[in-house]
Amino acid sequence: MLPFFATCPKGLETLLLDELTQLGATQLQETVAGIGFKADLAMAYRACMWSRLASRIMLQLSEFTMRTDMDLYLGAANVAWEEHIQPGQTFAVDFSGSNEAITNTQYGALKIKDAIVDRLTKRHGERPNVDKRAPDIRILAHLKRNNQLSITLDLSGPALHQRGYRQQAGEAPLKENLAAAILLRSGWDKSAPLVDPMCGSGTLLIEAALMAADIAPGLLRVRFGFMAWSRHDKNAWQEISAQATVRATRGLKQCQVQLIGFDQDKRVLRFAQENALAAGVETLIDFRLASVEQLVNPFTQHSGLSATQASNDEPLTGWLISNPPYGERLSEFPSLLGLHQLLGNKLREQFKGWRVSLISSSSELLSCLRLRPDKTYKLFNGALACELRNYLIAADAKTARPLAEDFANRLTKNIKQLEKWAKAEHIDCYRLYDADLPEYNAAIDRYQDHIVIQEYAAPKTIPEHKARARFYDLVQATMAVTGVTGNKLVLKVRARQLGREQYERLDKREQWLQVQEHNAKLLVNLFDYLDTGLFLDHRPTRKRISELAYGKDFLNLFAYTGTASVHAGLGGAKSTTTVDMSNTYLAWAERNMALNGLVGRAHQFIQADCLTWLRQPGESYDVIFVDPPTFSNSKRMEDNFDIQRDHIELLGLLSQHLRQDGLVIFSNNKRHFKMDTEGLAALGLHATEVSKQSLPKDFARNPHIHNCWDIRWA
């Protein structure tokens, strides 16, 4: 009996132990991501041929304590390498783990390589060659935390999950051994109908077909690591291979399993068909083009199956097993949430009495199914931690109750109140909800047929899991109430922003939407930045600027995307000057102006730090709009800026550019801002607060969204 070690992805150890026991292994010892066992060589070959779960099967050559690099060299040199590697053969060494002596895996591999080369050169009289890419023999060394080093010979060659049938793959495909584990954990009866509604390149269904037809997962492979090994028993391997061929031939003839896969991507579905053909199971799998939205149970009396396949009295029951997409970026989440919400509804409507198993790295997305799992398993897709949840869809499953009913009712009421008003005002963009209910802490804005949800950072007193759950409920309820699809729903997280952090780029979609605001056409970008390019709460101020601007010279400072300049220009301003520190936003402002036919010398765009620009002698203006940040420490500014501390200095600089009968409209977003009236009077200016008048109808519940002042010469 020889000592072996089988590796597997974390979470599959118990399954692998059972599988190796059935294959004839003894003295099994379970560890993290692997099983140690004793067996003869034939049994190790059977494991290479038949294991659906193992990543590698390795023969253990040596294990010793290693505290220094000399221990490593001497321990490796004591292995009888001449019994494993013949003259003229190539080898490679892979090393994992570290301790105080070996902190670099490449160095560890190098010391073992040196020991092998020295011993073989001495024994054979010639130096062996190293081939890291395709060696005849691969040596694996693993250093454990207790300083025990294990040296093994890899019998597998390429990892065993590489069955040999995968010709093409879609995005983020499942490894074949993980797919097999999912099928085993699901409890699937190998004779029962199986549906994968998002089959991708078909891995789950192909693995199911191999199981149902009793086809060894290693039968298609042309190369194993033991084939060039000196002690390889060709006769034993030929017998195992021949037996597997006979079983596969018989299994394919007898197999009656019904496997159906759906996918909405023609290209990926073609990959699945090619993979099934390469695996020799194309006759067992029916691949169909359909989205989840089009999903129906194919095993019902209306499915087109024969009377022997589906009873007219009740549908067949079976298993639905799938690996739904689970993106890691917030921008991907709305579509995925909508997909899972739809899938949950389809399961309740179409698959009553069925067993369902779904794997995902996002427990939140699985929760959007609104199904209670019977069992949950922790698995790993590569390094990605995942959950496999098993469900039984009740025969009397009903449509899920509406989520967040109080919130949904409030949102419905708000929409009813605002839609007619917005249409009458020729407004495409407005706020639907702004943390009206404390437990649903978000702002929701409409941009034509898009919805933007900005999640406010939850108070530290609210547990993160509870805040997350409420937010996901809010998102799902918003989709249900508004009817918005996932590709037109935008999610953002809004915490307290410093300076121009609110303008920092989040994505690079360059997806622009032209919207209407009164008589102005404006460009917004819903995806690439935290803010969209249009501050909705300043809408009345922009309209007022339009009414004040006729025949006037207008200055827009801290101009952002120049929307106030657009309204001034449309109001008949004699000239507009738009100043901002960002070239990106000045270019955006120019596009907004050009969209409205506002081009030419009368409309100037200046890239500058506004405070520095104001200190320079220059033109004077009739109307000045200034909406500075609450705080900024941008590297482009000469000094940091605090609106409460520095507003008198700012207004003093502005006064040098304000004509005698001119007006400054001064706005900021600092809560509890206090105007320094004495400092203002010393400048010869007078301020009148117009915050209440500047508040639009859709922000009536949030009077502190901004404050606004008219400032004139006293």
TrEMBL record:
Gene3D superfamilies: 3.30.2130.30, RNA methyltransferase domain (HRMD) like, Vaccinia Virus protein VP39. It catalyses: guanosine(2069) in 23S rRNA + S-adenosyl-L-methionine = N(2)-methylguanosine(2069) in 23S rRNA + S-adenosyl-L-homocysteine + H(+); guanosine(2445) in 23S rRNA + S-adenosyl-L-methionine = N(2)-methylguanosine(2445) in 23S rRNA + S-adenosyl-L-homocysteine + H(+). The keyword rRNA processing applies. It holds the Pfam family RlmL_1st. GO terms for molecular function: 23S rRNA (guanine(2445)-N(2))-methyltransferase activity; RNA binding; rRNA (guanine-N7-)-methyltransferase activity. Keywords: Cytoplasm, Methyltransferase, RNA-binding, rRNA processing, S-adenosyl-L-methionine, Transferase. It is found in: Cytoplasm. GO terms for cellular component: cytoplasm. Residues 43-155 form the THUMP domain. Specifically methylates the guanine in position 2445 (m2G2445) and the guanine in position 2069 (m7G2069) of 23S rRNA. This is Ribosomal RNA large subunit methyltransferase K/L. It comes from Oceanisphaera avium.
